[in-house]
Amino acid sequence: DDHNKENLFNSLNYDVAAKKRKKDLLNNKTKVQYFHQEKWIYVHKGSTKERHGYCTLGEAFNRLDFSSAILDSRRFNYVVRLLELIAKSQLTSLSGIAQKNYMNILEKVVQKVLEDQQNIRLIRELLQTLYTSLCTLVQRVGKSVLVGNINMWVHRMESILHWQQQLNNIQITRPAFKGTTFTDLPLCLQLNIMQRLSDGRDLVSLGQVAPDLQVLSEDRLLWKKLCQYHFTDRQIRKRLILSDKGQLDWKKMYFKLIRCYPRKEQYGDTLQLCRHCHILSWKGTDHPCTANNPETCSTSLSPQDFINLFRF
Asked: Could you report the per-residue pLDDT of 124-156, keeping only the tens digit for each?
């Protein structure tokens, strides 16, 4: 009898364990399939803390495929700006998984910049912003403001310092191309191209390449258009600066204005919110919209608009 009872007990344990493994396997498969197939997220209209459910900033960050977005030149600056905004004030709003995902995406961004040697300054500023924020948060660890062990965050801060060092060690090599260069173009074309630069620091850097470019980079009309692109007439009137010759010094005004007002942001591609079904996704991503013409229902969101969706 004891032998039979033992066999029965082992059999029951085996059945329970088998059912549990089967259930866990099914759940895992479901989660993986769900995560990889759906690259959109539903955002509750008029969300509150009670109604938010799974629709959090961390969940949206996990679901919207930022790892692929950084490989698209139209979306790269958008994702970097979003990472910067999260680093400034939203790190504690991310779940543990979302924070890990954030660091993984940031590492991919750094590796991309190290490979193609573009947007170096942009990523340096992002890393510095993140490191400064983490220094502040880690010092307040007694208040449990960060998810995870303190040693894990110290390790992440060490990784940021290592990435900064790698970026500082980049040696940009001159390409072997011997055809027509930028300085070979007519002056009118050079100025036309320089007018496409939306950051005054890029103009200053370009002017340091060659003496002729230095002269062009000081063009008053160039800096005037840059000021008018980023700032309103009212903002400009409040920050007028005259040169020694009695003329408006547009270059000095630009750098004074960017310290006082946010610059205009423009991106090749952005996240979009469907006004009909309240689904958030990248442009061109299929989502289950019931509207007759889904393209007309989409509204582009700036990185700050994206953050604001998950504030309650």
From this structure: 999 999 999 998 888 765 555 777 777 888 889
Task: Give the tens place of pLDDT for each residue, 168-184.
Answer: 998 877 767 677 888 88
Dihedral over alpha carbons 190, 196, 198, 199 (to 10 degrees): -20
Q: How many residues does the chain have?
A: 312
Instruction: Map residue 75 onto helix, strand or coil.
Output: helix
Whether 285 and 299 have beta carbons less than 8 Å apart is answered as no
Q: How far apart are CA 281 and CA 238, in angstroms?
A: 39
Q: How many CB atoms lie within 10 A of CB 127?
A: 21
Supply 236's token pair. 């400009």
Question: In this structure, what are the phi and psi dihedrals at residue 267, rounded to the nearest 5 degrees?
Answer: -130, 150
Based on the number of CB atoms within 10 Å of its own CB, is 93 exposed (0-12), middle (13-18) or buried (19 or more)?
middle
* 24-54: pLDDT as tens digits: 555 544 443 334 457 888 887 655 544 444 5
Strand ranges for 41-138 from DSSP E: 41-42
| pTM score over 0.85 | no
Which residue type sits at 177?
A: F
Report yes or no: 222 and 195 within 8 Å, Cβ to Cβ: yes
What is the radius of gyration, based on Cα positions, of the chain?
Answer: 26
φ, ψ for residue 301, nearest 5 deg = -115, 135
CA distance 305 to 142: 32
Give the closest residue to 268 by CA, choosing from 114, 113, 79, 61.
Answer: 79
